Amino acid sequence: MHMRHRWAVDAGVGLLFVLAAAFLTHRLWPGPAGRVLALNPSDQALDEWFLAYATRAYRGDFSLVTGMLNAPDGVNLLCNASLIGMGLLLAPVTLAFGAPVTFSLLVAGNLAATGIGWYLLFARTLAMHRAGALIGAAFAAFAPGMVSQSNAHLHMTAAWLVPPIVWCVVRIARQTEVTWRTARTGLLLGALVAVQFFVGEEVLFLTAVTLALFTLVFVAVARPSLRVAPPFVFGLGLAAGLAAALLAYPLWLQFHGPQSVEGGVFLPSFFSADLFSFTAISPLSLAGDDSAARLVSGPAEYTTFFGAPLLLVALGATVWMWRRPAVVAAAVTAVVLCLFALGPFIAMDREPTSQRGPFSLLSGLPVIESALPTRFALAAIPLLAVILARVVDAAITQTETLRLLVPVAVVAALVPLAPAPLPVIDRAPVPRFFTEGYWKVYAPEDGVVVPVPLPDPRDPDAMRWAAATNARIATPQGWFIGPYGKGGAAAVGVYPRPTSQLLQRVAKSGRPAELTAADREALTRDIAYWRAASFVLDPHHPKAGALKQTMDDLLGPGEQVGDVWVWRAP
């Protein structure tokens, strides 16, 4: 293929991925500030706050442990899926257009960039036929697991650095002696690992596990020459050394710093894949239906919904190409990862059994035991993509009789998995009090503004108010992971203070509180603890009348400022 024509084809494929990602997210775009992903609005509110907070770096005031959320105790960003790398990268977009636009851009951009990365790896580094590279990369980017994680799990869909990481490993593995090229590639790999840590740490963990398993199986099957061992060990050692040096302090901060947590907050048994889910079609696919949703813990975890046709095609392709070590290694590694996805105990059609899964072997291991089992299946997606791309490449380039049949069979297996646009619903606009700067009169820069009622894991929507100011005001409580469980264990959110509990009861009952002297004393203590500057109530809250009456009784008549009610904290 002529060089100019090859570049044109590659550019066309890239544009195709961008258009596909735009189609999947097009319901967000008419007004990102007034739209929310219907299947996971809570995580979207959290993501938008993290993206807004990242803009503080451009003012020279950014910290990995911040008191701008959960004021005054703060939040350890590294213990949360805080989108640090993406937030810093797109901070100019957030400053110009707001966090909802950046969020929408990342939902689409993560998928498109991941697909482009895998396509270039398949087509250029692995020299596969463009058709095979396109099919494999499309599955790697738009598989049901990736589409379901697009429901506000941006740290999981941000896999666009994984192809460059794999490229570095392949480049080192092809060396037969230690050279400057080996050292340079090793240093690049170490730098990419460090960056991926801040883009998506869980993706980095899964990538490391997958590459380690793949390498072991590949070596066992291919038995490569020992000449490749010294440069391979040298290159990976150099990468590990650089990554360790760059990440030593962040890792210490994550596991031992302020507001750090030990262990995971989610139960592995709850986030485990059902055995029946592997042959099911995701409800987010065009051929899917909602009945399969019962097989998972939530709509963001359709990671194992590969469908029977695809599994049969992948099995047939592996059998046909059993002499190719890379294909065998990809297949074996994918099976192992899917077995881990089954969790500690195997469940069939949501019925738990007493049969232990391989994940139970990880019990007691630090860090690893906190991993969510179902996410291991996400790492199997690129491995299946390798098999699909390679079988199409082999059929087109090596056999006349199968040149058409194999690509058609692969595409036919993928068609039922084609994703539908992500479901979206309208949401209340952020009050003009925050978007137009009225808050500056009622709180100093970085001052604490208390939403009425306070945000919590069940309803974090008020976190959007601070996000609209680019995190220039602090918020008590919120939706985050912190050391608030029993004995300092990980927990979602913080136990609410008395005034917060009072306002929650009012918001739930719709009746003004009958205040006592104890309630007023608690308010005084809570204002001092939060260092609150003001309290704000959105009149559009469903129980606004009862909440306003309660606040008036606590602090005196509120002021109507713009489109909200405000009470200055004494």
From TrEMBL:
Q: What is this protein called?
A: Glycosyl transferase
Asked if the Swiss-Prot or TrEMBL record annotates the protein with the keyword Transmembrane helix, the reply is yes
Which UniProt keywords are present, listed alphabetically?
Membrane, Transmembrane, Transmembrane helix
Q: Which organism is it from?
A: Dactylosporangium cerinum
List the residue ranges forming a coiled coil, or say none: none
- Where do the TM regions start and end? 7-29, 77-97, 131-147, 153-170, 182-199, 234-253, 265-288, 300-322, 328-347, 359-392, 404-425
Keyword Transit peptide in record:
no
